[in-house]
Amino acid sequence: MISSSTVVNSVVAKLRQALARGQWRSGDMLPGQRELAEQLGISRPSLREAVTVLETLGLVRALPGKGVLVLDAEAAPQDPPSENAAAASLADVLELRYTLEPFIVGLVAQSANNQDIGQLRLTLMDMREALEANDSEAGVKAYIAFHEALFALTTNPIFQSVVQQTGNALKQSASMLRNSPEHLAARLKENEAVVRAVRERNSAQASAQMRQHILAEGERMGIQLNIPDDQPGQ
């Protein structure tokens, strides 16, 4: 039986090769999901995961309601990522999140207004509705939307460029999130604790709750994070 990760890696390789050949150039839109999935002989969920990988690599950008825009076809290398590289990238994703998100949410706790907090709570409501409906795909989208909403609340202009990479890294782990829908309730509970701390303007608590959340994500993914001994939240 072919694993979903093998299918996705194969699709990523084919699309990168097509980009390198100039089948689609910078500024072009990829064919619609249904058409492209049929061309490649794969399911649309597998295609979405492959597009997420390409987006993380900076080769395309998914535009809601419009499609997938090609950013830089000539930058697409030919070699598909190995399974070891994919596994390492998940650890890298979590290490990046552990480094940045607790600090970001601490800043947000100091500056967020009622409207900002309301927006965060709306994404949590989406997660809860997905949990109650047993809709894992909607749950993943709501989870990512929650963290992206946090990133969007940063007021430091330098962070604006940095959190773009964090958002891309979070999307890269989407396939792992989809493979563990049973953990959505735990993710919701942990993110609710983060928002409570933000609502209380408790910066230190918000940061601590986010660290705990990301460490828990590592445990759920079977990844041992390399955290310095002097870091809190272990």
Summarize this, please?
This protein is mainly α and 234 residues long. The chain has ten helices and two strands; from the N terminus they run H-H-H-E-E-H-H-H-H-H-H-H.
Provide a descriptive summary of the structure in words.
It is built from 10 helices and 2 strands, in the order αααββααααααα. The chain is mainly alpha-helical and 234 residues long. A two-stranded antiparallel sheet has the order 1-2. Strand 1 (60-63) and strand 2 (67-70) form a beta hairpin. The longest helix has 29 residues, at 83-111. The protein is globular and about 50 Å long. The termini are far apart. Mean pLDDT is 80; it is low at 74-88.
